[in-house]
Amino acid sequence: MFAADDADGEKEIPEEGDFDKNGRKKDKVRFLDADQIDGVDNTSRDKGGIRLDDESSDDEADVDLAIQEEGIDEEVGAGGLKKNAPKVEAFNLKQEMEEGQFDQDGNYVRKGGDPDAVHDNWLEGLSKKEMRKAAAAHEKREAEARKQRLEDDEVLVSDLLKTLILNLERAETPLEALARLGKKQTKPKKIPKWKLKKMNKGAEGMEVDGGENIEDAEQKKIKASIGAITEAADKLLSRDHEEIYEQERELLVREYRKETGEDWVEPEASQTNQDEQAAVKPGTMWKFRWVDGRDGNDSQGPYDGATMKAWKDAGYFPEGAVEFREVEEGRDWSLHVDAFE
């Protein structure tokens, strides 16, 4: 009754890919191995036929003689000579099997192209030396990326949260903080070329190519805050904090408490920050002169306090090399000024 079944009583379960779109079972194609093909001669080689680009030094007399010896019709001419016959390549089964397969009916089925071969197009025309150089550069980049990932992993989540909290205002998100700080950013002040020349008059080894950009302390602080917020938020984003840019400061404080087990303590406003805020006041004008007398001991100025502070922050007044004095009468020259008012 079950004679059609296999000897062990198990039936072959057809796979889903064995049927076409109409539900009919596909005919399985069986491919032959090289040793299953009759008449294979693995020792077959090309017989060295005449190539079309072979140079011929035969003169016309030799060609006519060869035509007479081989009994070739004059209308056929030299093209009928054996030496001018097209090259016939021997059938190389091994090579053919690399490019395709023969099915059980003897039909040759060529293999499909490599779909990823297009990604190797950039290698065309490159020498082995250039490929080795490219591989070495790739390995170097991978090593640097691994090193950077290890360094990033060493930074605790609590430290990243602390950085964000310190740079955010109450009820503010990192995204809102970046927008607030971005509005406060201004272009750096540019010192005119003539003013730089006057400041550096007589200085040796100093070349002035053009105006220099001066970035005051407030702008430096804004720039540093933007960088700190972006770096901390991006690292938290890579650690599955997908909504970090939209979380308010209070939520970050809760996350910090959860990470550390400690309550967040608001830092006290430092006296240094208060001094910096009151450092620059309008109205006071300043002069300066070089201690070594490089400009004939002449004073430069007057300049307002904001300009003098910007130059000092930029490093244009080396310590102990410049004296300062307020324009008001009765003021003495001084090597050190706490704040340009």
From TrEMBL:
The superkingdom listed in its UniProt entry is Eukaryota
* Coiled-coil spans in chain: 126-153
Which GO CC annotations does the UniProt entry carry? Answer: U5 snRNP
Where is each GYF domain found? 283-341
What SUPFAM superfamilies does the record point to? Answer: GYF domain
Keyword Transferase (UniProt): no
Chain spans, region Disordered: 1-63, 97-120
Give the UniProt keywords, A-Z.
Coiled coil
Keyword Coiled coil found: yes
Residue spans with biased composition (Basic and acidic residues)? 10-22, 43-54, 111-120
Name the record gives this protein? GYF domain-containing protein
Species this protein is from: Fusarium oxysporum f. sp. lycopersici (strain 4287 / CBS 123668 / FGSC 9935 / NRRL 34936) (Fusarium vascular wilt of tomato)
